[in-house]
Structures are given as structure tokens and as C-alpha cells.
Write a structure and sequence with these properties.
Largest sheet of chain A: 5 strands, mixed
Radius of gyration of chain A: 20 Å
Structural class of chain B: mainly alpha
Oligomer: heterodimer
GO molecular function (chain A): 2 iron, 2 sulfur cluster binding; electron transfer activity
InterPro entries (chain A): 2Fe-2S_ferredoxin-like_sf, 2Fe2S_fd_BS, 4Fe4S_Fe-S-bd, Beta-grasp_dom_sf, Helical_ferredxn, SDH/FRD_Iron-Sulfur, Succ_DH/fum_Rdtase_N
Shape of chain B: globular
CATH architecture of chain B: Up-down Bundle
CATH topology of the largest domain in chain A: Fumarate Reductase Iron-sulfur Protein, Chain B, domain 2
CATH superfamily of the largest domain in chain A: Alpha-helical ferredoxin
Number of domains of chain B: 1
Distance between the termini of chain B: 63 Å
Cofactor (chain A): [2Fe-2S] cluster; [3Fe-4S] cluster
Radius of gyration of chain B: 20 Å
Order of helices and strands of chain A: EEHEEEEEHHHHHHH
Strand content of chain B: under 5%
Shape of chain A: elongated
Pfam families (chain A): Fer2_3, Fer4_8
CATH class of the largest domain in chain A: Mainly Alpha
Largest interface: A-B, 52 and 44 residues
Number of helices of chain B: 7
Strand order of the largest sheet of chain A: 2-1-5-3-4
Family (chain A): Belongs to the succinate dehydrogenase/fumarate reductase iron-sulfur protein family.
Order of helices and strands of chain B: HHHHHHH
């Protein structure tokens, strides 16, 4: 924890495109304010690189307030860096010390190919959603509030699952590069609410099948995903997905 | 016609096979540790030999043994397959990976611990199971029972074998520490009321089973049990 400006050494993964061989490149960043966010520190470094005529480092970012799920840096061996329940944009340089060496890598998974430098292609998540992460009814106008009574505990659990921003930290940190926490959150947010019931088991089957087809690994219940998730998505969702999947396969007579 | 489709070949189905066979092996270990603990009567192995002879000749037990081997082989096959598939899911490794920040080392090392246990099992089965079922137990005890206890005493005079068995039980303890609770999570049994009980039971189960097994070669080598 630093209150003074810092001089840091960054080891950043540089890779020109998906086909190219990448490698870690050392950069010195000096006079870094502790109040900067991690991404702002990268902005400063990139300005510097551009001034020197170098290629700036490509990284994903958008809202910079922890709700969009775009930022995705693997910092010193952990997704979104050393703090819990924050995304990289919410990580501040006061979490580091003067003289630190920080290793920054992209998410690593077969299903998340590197586009350039620190940016990876996360459209595999979009295809999992497209496989069934929705309800197929015309919703029409917004209903009156509380027209469908839902128990508080149920709506809370659905809301907690819906907090998933699909950043991919769960896949990045999982030693198996498994996407089960993400997929289970997207299944749970609908499985817990009345509107999600008609397609509940069909949805679980289709989304799990798509997750497998994308080449993510298999879950071995290490719990790393839950510990690193910036939104605190719980392993309870994976258990719920498992139950829905078993129901679909062993109880339901319908085959998808 | 509806079928089970990819129920067992999907990622969740593969977990299910690991979980169910794992729980089955956990049940087996209870029987195994119970029979073997009969040596702690310290009566020259008489009670133990009675138990062992019953296990060796009761046809229900012998039929169960076949199911046990099928379960064990399924657990080994599926486990190894998962290790290779999961490695392939991350072709480029991280330069810096801080796994200890978010998970227990043994939960990340189930493949390694399981492989150590597999090597131990090959030694262990040839030490006792092959002798008991195929090559024959050479001597009888005072009651005319097959003296499996004498085979045990003979094996555990060798310090190397005793150390191998104790180290294997350390692997078993860590394998179970993750495996027990993990199997219930896989089955979908994650519940605010039951999960803490399952975790606590799993912890004590892992410790007690492994310590009891490890005590056997140690007690025989040191001559406490004879």
C-alpha cells in the first residue's frame, strides 16, 4: 500500500495477432500515482509508447466502473489483480508498492483465443447465451410491479446470479479453464424466476452442450472461480445447474 | 425414442461419474478400514483372520468385489481423461499463476494425488489381494483360518514398504479432503444447512480413515501389534 508516487516494472504480454508467437515485454513506468486505476496506468504507458512511435498495448475496457465486464487482465497470477470483488478498472495503484514488478497477461483458455496483446475473444460466452439463456415469449409492455409474487429469497438469489458481468475471470483462474460458474449463473438467473420455468430444463441442456462445444475444461470444484469472481457469484449456482441438467437428462422425457 | 443422449459424455456427466464412483469407493473404505481394524484386538490376528476369511469366501462379497473393480476402473479412467482434457483447455500456460490465492493445493492436485494412489494400489493389491485370492495364503492360524495376518506381519517388517504405505495414506487423506465434499457438490447437494455438515463430516472421515490405515503398518513394524 503506497501513498507516494511509484516506479514500477511491468511485464506485459505482447502478441501481434492470434497466429503470432507472443512474449512478455518489460516496461518501466515512473511516477505512478497511487490514486490511478490500473487501466489509467496503462493509458499513461500507452501515451508514452505512442509518443515514442511504438505500438500501444491493446487491452479491453469500456465502462471503467466495474459493471460492463470488458476489462480482463491477469495480474500477478490472478484475474483482475490482488483485490477481491473488483474488476481491473476498479483496482487502484495503491494496491502496489514502489519498485514492484507486475506481470500482466491475457485470459488463457483454448475457448478465449488472443486477439492482440491483452485482448481475448470472448464470443464463446455469447454463443452459450444464444444457445438458451433467454425466455422465448413476447414480453409486451412492462407488467405492474408485483403482478407475479416471488419470494424475497428467490428473487435475491436470482438477482445475485444476474450480477454476473461475463468478464471471464472464472474461466481465466480455473485450472481447467472451465466456464461452469458463468454458465450456471446465466442458467440460474432464469431458473429461479417464474418466467424461466417453461424452458428451464431445455435451457440447462442446451447451454451446457454449447459450453462443452466451445472447448472449455471440466469443473473439478476447486472453488477458484467463486473466490476470484468480481461479482461474488456463488458455487451454489453450479450445483443448481447440475440439478437442472440431471433433471433434463434423467427425469424429463423430452430430449433436446 | 428418447434416450439419455450425452448425459454421461457431457462435462457435467463426467463429473457425475467421478462423484458417484468416488462416493462408492468412500463407502468401500469404511468396510475395508473396519475389517482391518480388527488387528487392533492384538490377539495374534485371530479376529482379523476370521473377518478376512469371511470377506474372501462370501459370494455376495465376491460379487461386490467385481462391482468395486468396475467402479475403481471407471474412476481411474475418467479421472485421467479429465486431467488430459482439462490441460488441453489451456494450451498456453500463465507465466505467473497464483493458485494458492483462491483454492487449496490438494483440490488442484487431484490428478497427481490419484496417480500416487494408483501406484500404491498396484503394490497393495499384489501384496495382499493377489495372495488372498490367487496364489494362496501359505499358513493357517491356531483356529485353522487362513492366516492373512501373518502375511501382513511379514510384509510390514520392511521399513521401505511401511514408509510407502504411510505416504500413500497421506495422499489418500488429501484426495478425500477434496473428494468427499466435492462429490456432493457435483450431485447438486449444495445447501446452506447441509453443506457445512457434509464438509465437517468429510474432513473427519478423511482424517480418521487415513490415520487408522496408516497406523496398521506402523503398529506392526514397531511390534505394538503382533
Amino acid at each position: 500500500m503506497s501513498t507516494e508516487n511509484m516506479n514500477l516494472t511491468l511485464k506485459v504480454w505482447r502478441q501481434t495477432d492470434n497466429k503470432a508467437q507472443g512474449n512478455l515485454v518489460d516496461y518501466k513506468v515512473s511516477d505512478v500515482s497511487p490514486d490511478m486505476s490500473f487501466l489509467e496506468m496503462f493509458d499513461v504507458l500507452n501515451e508514452d509508447l505512442i509518443t515514442k512511435g511504438d505500438d500501444p498495448i491493446v487491452f479491453d475496457h469500456d465502462c471503467r466502473e466495474g459493471i460492463c465486464g470488458a476489462c480482463s487482465m491477469y495480474i500477478n497470477g490472478r484475474p483482475h489483480g490482488p483485490k477481491e470483488l473488483v474488476t481491473t478498472c476498479q483496482l487502484h495503484m495503491r494496491s502496489f508498492k514502489d519498485g514492484d514488478t507486475i506481470v500482466v497477461e491475457p485470459w488463457r483458455a483454448k475457448a478465449f483465443p488472443v486477439i492482440k496483446d491483452l485482448a481475448v475473444d470472448r464470443t464463446a460466452f455469447d454463443r452459450i447465451i444464444a444457445a438458451g439463456g433467454f425466455i422465448s415469449v413476447n414480453t409486451g409492455n412492462a407488467q405492474d410491479a408485483n403482478a407475479i409474487p416471488i419470494p424475497k429469497s428467490q428473487s435475491d438469489a436470482a438477482f445475485e446470479a444476474a450480477a454476473c458481468i461475463a468478464c471471464g475471470a472464472c474461466v481465466a483462474t480455473c485450472k481447467n479453464a472451465s466456464a461452469m460458474l458463468f454458465t450456471s449463473a446465466k442458467i440460474s438467473q432464469l431458473a429461479l424466476l417464474p418466467q424461466g420455468q417453461p424452458e428451464r430444463y431445455r435451457r440447462a441442456q442446451s447451454m451446457v452442450a454449447q459450453m462443452d462445444a466451445e472447448g472449455f475444461g471440466n469443473c473439478t470444484n476447486t472453488g477458484a472461480c467463486e473466490a476470484e469472481c468480481p461479482k461474488g457469484i456463488s458455487l451454489e449456482n453450479i450445483a443448481r445447474m447440475n440439478r437442472d441438467f440431471y433433471h433434463a437428462k434423467f427425469v424429463s422425457e423430452e430430449e433436446v | 425414442m428418447a434416450s439419455f443422449g450425452n448425459a454421461f459424455s457431457s462435462s457435467i456427466g463426467k463429473k457425475l461419474i467421478m462423484g458417484i464412483t468416488g462416493l462408492f469407493l468412500i463407502l468401500f473404505l469404511i468396510v475395508h478400514v473396519f475389517i482391518n481394524s480388527l488387528i487392533f484386538f492384538n490377539d495374534g490376528g485371530q479376529t482379523f483372520n476370521q473377518g478376512a476369511e469371511f470377506m474372501a469366501h462370501n459370494w455376495i462379497i465376491r460379487a461386490g468385489e467385481i462391482v468395486l473393480f468396475v467402479g475403481l476402473l471407471a474412476h481411474i479412467y475418467q479421472g485421467l481423461r479429465l486431467v488430459f482434457e482439462n490441460r488441453a483447455a489451456r494450451p498456453v500456460k500463465y507465466a505467473a499463476y497464483n493458485g494458492s490465492a483462491n483454492s487449496k493445493w490438494y483440490s488442484r492436485s487431484m490428478g497427481l494425488l490419484g496417480t500416487l494412489l494408483l501406484i500404491f494400489l498396484i503394490v497393495h493389491l499384489s501384496d495382499f489381494w493377489v495372495v488372498s485370492r490367487f496364489t494362496g495364503i501359505p499358513t493357517e492360524d491356531a483356529l485353522g483360518k487362513e492366516d492373512l495376518f501373518a502375511v501382513m506381519v511379514d510384509k510390514f517388517q520392511n521399513l521401505g514398504i511401511v514408509i510407502l504405505y504411510v505416504l500413500a495414506m497421506v495422499s489418500l487423506a488429501y484426495h478425500l479432503l477434496h473428494g468427499f465434499a466435492s462429490a456432493f457438490q457435483t450431485l447438486g447437494w449444495n445447501h446452506k444447512k447441509y453443506s457445512p455438515i457434509i464438509r465437517a463430516f468429510g474432513f473427519w472421515y478423511s482424517i480418521i480413515i487415513s490415520v487408522l490405515f496408516a497406523l496398521m503398518p506402523v503398529a506392526i513394524y514397531t511390534g505394538i501389534i503382533k
